[in-house]
Specification:
3 helices, mainly alpha, 74 residues
Length: 74
């Protein structure tokens, strides 16, 4: 249930950021908008990691990822 909510939230935010990037490209010259796009993408990553951090601690996330990776091994 938590993961489906995370997936839905991620899709909503991806759509939002993609619209912002499109506006930036149309608003200015290529070089200035290109710099703004990289900042927007970094901001998006910070936002995603902030969401993950608010839902669980880094140690819990690392443990979950480790257990998942271990389950994939034959």
């Amino acid at each position: 249930m938590l993961w489906s909510g995370l997936t839905q939230m991620t899709h909503i935010k991806l759509a939002f950021y993609s619209r912002q990037e499109h506006k930036l490209v149309n608003a200015g010259s290529y070089t200035s908008s290109r710099c703004s796009l990289s900042v927007t993408r970094c901001g998006f990553l910070e936002y995603i990691f902030g969401l993950l951090n608010s839902w669980c601690s880094a140690s819990q996330l690392l443990l979950a990822l480790t257990q998942t990776a271990t389950n994939w091994l034959p």
